[in-house]
Amino acid sequence: MSEILPPCCGDATGQPPTGLSRRTLLRGTAWATGALAVGGVVGLPGTAHAAPVIYNPFAAYPITGTWQDHLNYGSLGGIDFGMGVGTALPACGAGTIQNIPDNGTGGHTVTIYHADGYRSQYMHLSQFLLAYGTAVGAGTIVGRSGGAVSAPGSGSSTGPHLHWHMINPSGVRINPLTYISQNPGGGLPKTTTEYDGVPGPAFYQRMQNWLRITAGYTGPIDGVPGPNTWKAGSGSAPAGATPGRSTG
User: Fold this and answer.
1) Is the pLDDT of residue 27 over 80?
2) Is the model more confident about 117 or about 1?
3) What is the DSSP string of the chain?
4) What is the pLDDT of residue 72?
């Protein structure tokens, strides 16, 4: 189960994220609005103009905690995806990065600020990969998953997984899968070669995930096939093999 934080953004106190005063946030918003007017790079969201293009980078992983499950637990909502510690986490859409270490029960958290006032958050990370304020495109790896019990950055997680939710411009947490269905147009980043018949990173990530479930593959789900990937692919599923599950 993922116990998450108020929809404002930072911690359980409702204050701005660590290192950002309310005055700084207001200045950042005013600057971002001006940058939009002149075609500049936006560091923090300004006035909402249009829905961002978002895709689901985790479609290859089993959902181990639904939005309703989170509400039933008393959480403000989220989607849990079962995946091993250290799995690469692609950005679900373009934006800028904010890292929040030890974000209460959510543990290490990456927030992606989209230019139109929406935010996306990944929780229970084991590692941050990008500096604060880094501009990213859809598919850029922004961190690595965690969630192992009592491990640094896991927060209150009870098993390896990733928690994902979005926050709308009004500060309300929303289901990213519902958002995508209501705002079609997203899809795999153009950097993948999946659509031209030539296997690319997305294809190999899904292959590795399938091999983990069916053939006992224990390597990373990184989209880069190595000896362990090919070894698992050339074997057969162990007797009694069942899909892995997350207790988080």
Assistant:
1) no
2) 117
3) ------TTSS-TT-PPPTT--HHHHHHHHHHHHHHHHHT---SS--S--S------TTTTS-EEE-HHHHHHHT-S--EEEE--TT-EEE-SSSEEEEEETT-GGG-SEEEEE-TTS-EEEEESEEEE-S-TT-EE-TT-EEEEEB--TT-TT-TT-SSSEEEEEEE-TTS-EE-HHHHHHHS----S-TT--GGGTS--HHHHHHHHHHHHHHH---S--SS---HHHHHHHHS-PPTT--------
4) 93
Q: Can you give the length of the chain in residues?
A: 248
Average pLDDT, the chain: 76
In order of their start, the domains of the chain are 22-182 (2.70.70.10), 194-234 (no CATH)
* Alpha helices for the chain (secondary structure H): 22-38, 67-73, 176-182, 201-215, 227-234
Q: Which two three-digit tokens encode residue 171?
A: 């500060």
pLDDT tens per residue across span 112-164: 999 889 999 999 999 999 999 999 999 999 999 999 999 999 999 999 999 99
Q: Which residues pair with 111 in a beta bridge?
A: 98, 121
pLDDT band at 17 (very low <50, low <70, confident <90, very high): very low
How far is it, in rounded angstroms, from Cα 14 to Cα 121?
16
